[in-house]
Design goal:
Layout: H1 2-7, E1 11-16, E2 19-26, E3 34-37, H2 52-57, E4 70-75, H3 89-97
Parallel strand pairs: 3-4
Antiparallel strand pairs: 1-2, 2-4
């Protein structure tokens, strides 16, 4: 049952600053969904947001207004969830700052 719940999301892997990161990307069901990144703590995983993702991507189905929908991206921190070990928070900090990789 838990495997089916996890598999209902769109999973992908991207390379960021030389580190492979797993992430879930669920598109919002509204006229112009805003992008929203949810980041979990350590050690944890994207499943932390299992009940929140549907509320954010499809507010109209939960008593809200569809214009309030979000495109939700939930990366799995390196070494957590389905991401292989990596630089951890350092990867996110480099992306945020646009800094070069250590070997550049």
């Amino acid at each position: 049952m838990q495997e089916a719940a996890l598999n209902r999301y769109a999973h992908s892997i991207a390379e960021v600053c030389g580190t492979k990161l797993h992430f879930v990307h669920e598109r919002g069901l509204g006229p112009a969904p805003l992008p929203l990144v949810l980041v979990h703590g350590w050690p944890d995983g994207f499943q932390r947001f299992d009940k929140l993702i549907p509320l954010l991507t499809d507010p109209g189905a939960h008593g809200g207004n569809a214009v309030d929908a979000f495109d939700v991206v939930v990366p799995s921190l390196p070494g957590c969830g389905f991401s292989p070990p990596g630089f951890g928070w350092l990867v996110f900090e480099r992306v945020r700052r646009g800094a070069p990789q250590p070997d550049e």
